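It would be a great kindness if you could assist me with a short task in structural biology. Thank you for your consideration; the sequence and its tokens are set out here.
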Amino acid sequence: MAKIKPFKGIRPPKQLVTKVASRPYDVLNSEEARIEADGNPMSLYHIIKPEIDFEPGTDEHDPKVYDRAVDNFNAFQKNGWLVQDDKEYYYLYAQTMNGRTQYGFVVAANVDDYMTGKIKKHELTRRDKEEDRMKHVRINNANIEPVFFAFPDNAKLQKIIDNVSANQPEYDFVAPDGFGHHFWVINDEDTINEITGIFADIPYLYIADGHHRTVAAALVGHEKALNNPNHTGDEEYNYFLAVCFPESHLKIIDYNRVVKDLNGLTPQQFLDAVARNFDVKPMGNDIYTPQALHNFSLYLDGNWYSLTAKPGTYNDSDPIAVLDVTISSDLILRDILGITDLRSDKRIDFVGGIRGLGELKRRVDSGEMVMALALYPVTMKQIMDIADTGNIMPPKTTWFEPKLRSGIVIHKLD
């Protein structure tokens, strides 16, 4: 059962939230963060990407960079740019994109729940990325950025969402990327107890986005427990910062592929090879978007095609084999184009659906790439099925948008 608790959030005063809040550390590079933070000493980038305070080109893993993160975190609190709530609360955080709003509970999730598999993952993580985030959590003694969880829909929690969101939010702003962010403090004791009790009946939480941050937060908490001879299990380090969304609130965006060559084939030879396993239908010059599971969009030689996987080319009863990313990786990228490792092959690149299919067309028309393949997005249910069966998603499968804004609330480990 999911064990969560309220916590004393550290967050900006209302009038400063737009100055402090930032995009997550891993969606932009150092130079982009430097530009976004220019002229704004309150930007959270000074804590989550502190290399921007040094000369361009400074290694973000240099010990002095981590030390600067601590100095800046302390300065933000001393200056009143981040202030800790005096009581333990839950929070409700909502994001609006294209007129659609998703609501999540901001909670302190339990380290042991991750270590024992009650918080389920669907992606592999890289040790170097884990270690970087672990250093950041360790040295700041805080979860500066939240992780992004999902849980099965729950009518009681939805009712709480409806009731809380009917009130005036504490924060309500539109970020520079056009996404809306709304935030409520849940300070009613009965509601707090009710949330804790309802989550205690939810068997599993699922990592939607932020696997490296989750691993890092949990491992640092576990480390602290092992190093404390008087450990009881009630210490704040036994918990880490998470935003938990009902499954149906989340919309996963497509994650598409562009390829540099046809492995020696002419466009017609390539199409003939594809037609062995797919029904290929020319769609003309107008952008074609995949319409359903197992339907793909191909852009080649100035033309769009609809590709529909033929029956018998996939296994609907296997949570991995049923995925369109598996079908396209096996039957097109591997069998026809000879691309076997999506993580390392330089002949392929990936484009998040937030950029639109026009970006695929642009990259092919420019001559940089020769072919683009658009996939129908996976569902949260597919992700949960994969996590439930102990499987791991193929690489470059999911793209969550909007991203959680960092700096709206922070969790200290003591």
Remarks:
- The chain has a mean pLDDT of 95.
- The two ends are 24 Å apart (CA to CA).
